[in-house]
Amino acid sequence: MVFSVERLGRSLKINNHQTSEALSASLKNFRSQLSNFLNQLVLKSEIPESEYLSLPWFHHCYDTLHMSNKAFAKLVVDIDYPMSKWGNAATEEYLNYSFNLLKLLNSISSSLSHLSQAKLEISHALSLVPNSPSYAIHRLKKIQLKGPRNNFEVEILARSEEMVCSKKESVILQALLVMKSTGLWVLGLVLLGLCSDHIKPSVALLDDSLPEGVESRVCKLIIEKKGVMEEVKELNNAARRLAEITPSERWNDAAKDMEKRLEVLENSILGIENQTNYLFSEFLAARDKLLDYLGHTKHEP
To answer: Which residues fall in a coiled-coil region (predicted)?
Structure first.
């Protein structure tokens, strides 16, 4: 009998060790996936440096977040720790993480709204060119990107190291730490592109998320481009050329060129809006689901 108990004890220790190794392997795989996503975002061969802050670049930013969310969902399944089983620490951390991303997405939506309004004003000015070109050019103003009043800042805490919790919850907390770092940095780049120099990324990536120097190179590149999305820059250049045309030249041709660029900008705004709204809905649905689980837990006898 004593022998059986001792053997059972050794078996439990082995299984516990295997479980710890499996959890560590799942977390390591998740971190590796997010690192690869960031590498693909920053080092994509089909996106030359000249196209940073253009519509394709913004789409890649959102794709990175979508893939990160899927990787996190897979991690939850792999370690068999669904939201319905989460403890208070994981629940609180996810709610905090998603709340901060929702705030950033709201800021992006606000900036897009300002950009849409500026686009309508340019469109109205262009409609005046055939009958009153001088007055139209007087009303034609350069688009000024507008961002939030204050820089977006958030404190990232390594809660997994501060709180006593289960091994599975510790994995979730560590994964959320990486998710928060990645999500806020990527959305910070999008907001930076829509807000010019009104905002600067204030959340640093984890040290091993990207190869050394890549993060600083991206920020430096964006600053050199003055944080203006490419479609806005091209439209402003077209407006400047139109304003420089003398009365003896043909204003209509220049106006048509601006209208084409205005259409490109409109499609860009629509594309970013759709991505922003979709991601907002995803996070809101996840928060509602988690809060629903939390409500059921509190009402259990």
So the answer is: 225-275
137 — pLDDT class (breaks 50, 70, 90): confident
Domain boundaries, the chain: 52-299
Q: Which two tokens stand for residue 99?
A: 């709340």
Q: What's the whole-number mean pLDDT along residues 207-215?
A: 56
Burial class (CB in 10 A: 0-12, 13-18, 19+), 87: middle
Query: By the 8 A CB rule, do 111 and 194 touch?
Result: yes
pLDDT band at 203 (very low <50, low <70, confident <90, very high): very low
Among candidate residues 273, 272, 241, 218, the one with its CA nearest the CA of residue 54: 272
Instruction: Report the 3 state secondary structure along the chain.
Output: CHHHHHHHHHHHHHHHHHHHHHHHHHHHHHHHHHHHHHHHHHHCCCCCHHHCCCHHHHHHHHHHHHHHHHHHHHHHHHCCCCHHHCCHHHHHHHHHHHHHHHHHHHHHHHHHHHHHHHHHHHHHHHHCCCCCHHHHHHHCCCCCCCCCCCCCCCCCCCHHHHCCCCHHHHHHHHHHHHHHHHHHHHHHHHHHHHHHHHCCCCCCCCCCCCCCCHHHHHHHHHHHCCCCCHHHHHHHHHHHHHHHCCCCCCHHHHHHHHHHHHHHHHHHHHHHHHHHHHHHHHHHHHHHHHHHHHHHHHHCC
Structure tokens at 260: 């084409």
Q: Is residue 146 within 8 Å of residue 54, measured between CB atoms?
A: no
CA distance 241 to 140: 12
pTM above 0.70, yes or no: yes
